[in-house]
Amino acid sequence: MVDATLLRAGWAKPFLFLLCSLPFAYIVYGVIADQLGPDPVKTLIHITGEWGLRFFLVAFALTPFRRWFGLAALLRFRRMLGLFVWFYVSVHLLVVLTYLFGWDWEIAREELSERPYIIAGFASWLLLVPLGLTSNNRAVRALKKNWQRVHYLVYPAIGLAWLHVAWQTRSSYFDAVVYGLIILVLFLPRLKVFQNRR
């Protein structure tokens, strides 16, 4: 069991920020040192997408973990983790636009017709944009009760992120099934709360 006093410590947020930055540092090192294997573009697209989804799952887990383990202090980190989700997914999108599409609409149209799962991934990123832009105290004050409604976009966003992974699977569905089960387990407690509110 995690000690709640550790979660409230002043160094907890800087430590989490450093921890969340490590995958990006590893990715940058792999690019600079040419350590991304024989197909660096494919590796770069894959690794940035994987980390984006992993952070998405961690951020999505905070609310149920708070309820299951009685750790209200976990919510201190929700905003930071959410912004890291947006960051890693945006890096993933930037890599795709640069190395797969070459910022060329004709190439993009051809790729989208051959790889429709990209549309699901892009739609997920679009839904994250208002979440990222409103993840500040000023937006909370301005939107008031509507702030929570805006942040309900996280549900279709994580669903589309899973669809993006599952749709492109060609051989083993293991990762897609595991991710889907994790999302389902994390969503069920929220569904109960929604029903109780109604």
From TrEMBL:
Domain of life: Bacteria
Residue ranges of domain Ferric oxidoreductase in the record: 48-160
TM spans (from-to): 12-32, 52-69, 81-102, 117-137, 149-167, 173-191
Note describing how the cofactor binds: Binds 1 heme b (iron(II)-protoporphyrin IX) group per subunit. Binds 1 FMN per subunit.
Needed co-factor(s): heme b; FMN
Localization of this protein: Cell membrane; Membrane
Keywords of this entry: Cell membrane, Electron transport, Flavoprotein, FMN, Heme, Iron, Membrane, Metal-binding, Transmembrane, Transmembrane helix, Transport
Membrane topology: Multi-pass membrane protein
Signal peptide as annotated in the record: none
Family (UniProt): Belongs to the MsrQ family.
Function: Part of the MsrPQ system that repairs oxidized periplasmic proteins containing methionine sulfoxide residues (Met-O), using respiratory chain electrons. Thus protects these proteins from oxidative-stress damage caused by reactive species of oxygen and chlorine generated by the host defense mechanisms. MsrPQ is essential for the maintenance of envelope integrity under bleach stress, rescuing a wide series of structurally unrelated periplasmic proteins from methionine oxidation.
Oligomer status and interactors: Heterodimer of a catalytic subunit (MsrP) and a heme-binding subunit (MsrQ).
Full protein name: Protein-methionine-sulfoxide reductase heme-binding subunit MsrQ
Lineage of source species: Bacteria, Pseudomonadati, Pseudomonadota, Gammaproteobacteria, Cellvibrionales
